[in-house]
Design a protein that fits this description.
By secondary structure, the chain is of the alpha/beta class. The protein is about 40% helix and about 15% strand. It has ten helices and eight strands. Helix 2 crosses helix 3. It is elongated. It starts with 8 loop residues before the first helix and ends with a helix.
């Protein structure tokens, strides 16, 4: 427990002299003699006992040494952390790779630094680093308003149990904005039939259709990327008209426009 008030070195040496000088003064009397609260005296005496100090002090115990013995963390500079930290810029870059999560990067960090930070503190420090990079606008999502869709970009190997043939499959992911409720399925390709089919099965899984669909600028759905007037694939556009929903494609090279599905892809 921290002291209520820091004593000067002169007061601290006077306290040790009075306490161990043979007079057997009470804590209340010591507080009156030193001119501080009784709780402060009790705190300092507890620190003195924990440090194994007595009076007279050895000649090599200077004021600086005495300060460090009683307050071993007091010399820590503001903002200085005693444990080794990872390269946060590298962590941010690695997180952009498919399949990489903070848990994965933390496990790699702890392999190299067994005495490093725990997972929750690791995440907190990384979020602090992220906030220093660039300001971002927080998106507020209304229930049932938007669904964010994309292919994961990482293939899943499917093995035919009869022939043993290995065939790669794509992973389609859809995430509702407000609840982050996630739908995922494997498709053989990213072509238009699989793209549209995945949408229809996703709507059936959710049991409804949101007001807007937020896709990436996949060629199967978007012929020409434009935030205000995108050119849709005709079949894809008719499918959305059939379900009575609109479309708002994410801007090219702006992954934060579809951050929900980016996070969903990592989970999947």
């Amino acid at each position: 427990m921290p002291a209520k008030k820091r004593l000067t070195m002169r007061q601290l040496r006077a306290l040790l002299r009075l306490k161990h000088g043979g007079a057997r003064l009470s804590d209340r009397t010591l507080a009156c003699r030193i001119g501080v609260a009784r709780s402060t005296i009790q705190d300092y005496l507890a620190r003195v006992e924990a440090a194994g100090l007595s009076w007279p002090l050895p000649d090599d115990v200077t004021d600086e040494v005495l300060e460090q013995l009683l307050f071993p963390r007091s010399g820590c500079r503001p903002g200085f952390r005693r444990r080794v930290e990872p390269d946060w810029a590298m962590v941010a870059r690695e997180l952009k790779r498919p399949g990489v999560t903070l848990m994965t990067l933390w496990e790699e960090y702890r392999e190299g630094e067994p005495g490093g930070y725990g997972y929750s503190r690791f995440c907190d420090l990384f979020r602090e680093f992220e906030r220093r990079l660039s300001p971002t606008m927080r998106q507020h999502h209304v229930a049932g308003d938007k669904v964010f869709v994309d292919f994961s970009g990482k293939r899943l190997e499917v093995i035919d149990p009869a022939s043993g043939t290995v065939r790669p499959a794509e992973i389609f992911v859809g995430v509702l904005g407000a609840s982050s409720y996630t739908y995922a399925e494997a498709t053989w390709t990213q072509t238009l039939p699989d793209w549209i089919g995945a949408h229809t099965r996703m709507f059936g899984f959710f049991g409804g259709v949101p007001r807007l669909v937020i896709p990436d600028n996949l060629k199967s759905g978007i012929h020409r990327a434009n935030f205000f007037d995108p050119e849709l694939n005709r079949s894809y556009g008719r499918m959305l008209e059939h379900y009575g929903t609109g479309i708002l494609p994410a801007r090219p090279l702006k992954p934060k426009d579809k951050a929900k599905v980016e996070a969903g892809v990592r989970v999947v």
